[in-house]
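Deliverable D5.2: sample structural annotation.
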Amino acid sequence: MTLRPGSLRLYCPLVTAKQALRRAGIRGRRAARPSGDDRESAILETFERLLAERPFAAISVDDLARGAGISRPTFYFYFSSKDAVLLSLLDRVIAQADAASAAAFTGPATGRRDAWRQGITAYYETFRAHRAVTLAAAEAVAASPDVRDLWARGFEGWVQTCTATIEAERRRGAAPPGVPARELAIVLNAMNERTLYGTFRGARAAVAEEDVVDVLLEVWIAAIYGGSAPRRET
């Protein structure tokens, strides 16, 4: 669980005085034309909305262009394909999850249990808020090398951060020695990934949304600390 290099793109184009006058409609001037960032943001928002309504395979470039209020040729000025739009959306969601997790771990906590809970909750809430993107990306991993590579980079970042945290807990005597920290971190993060996917998809054998953070937390605590971690630092 780490903050990945790079940051979220902010879609807030600079408004000049001339643009402000046009938007106000002074002397009947035309409204300002959408900027490139506005169009790109509209494509991304349209795709996420459509993913919540239909499968990834049922969404076409024409659907995205029409929803964003642009032409098909204009769409290709911003994205090479609908797969590229999914990749951009997934990148933003991963970055949001990492930022939320980093904020959770640096915020006030009464102990390691509380810190782990905040970290797991940050990921859960971010991916749940973008459930449609999460499910579409999970299904695209098998067919898209780009999506697979992006997810693998994010996963590796989470593993590295968890590995460092587990090793630090062992050095200070809070967690007992055991299997290599990296291998434990890989298994725990893979468990989170699969469990959340099943919950968001509504699989028959899935943990209920209201219980999933508590269940994952207890497994992490048992695996790292060999039982239950103290609720407050000693």
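Annotation notes: The chain has ten helices and no strands. Confidence is low (pLDDT under 50) at residues 1-32, 229-234.
The annotation will be released with the project's public dataset once the embargo ends.
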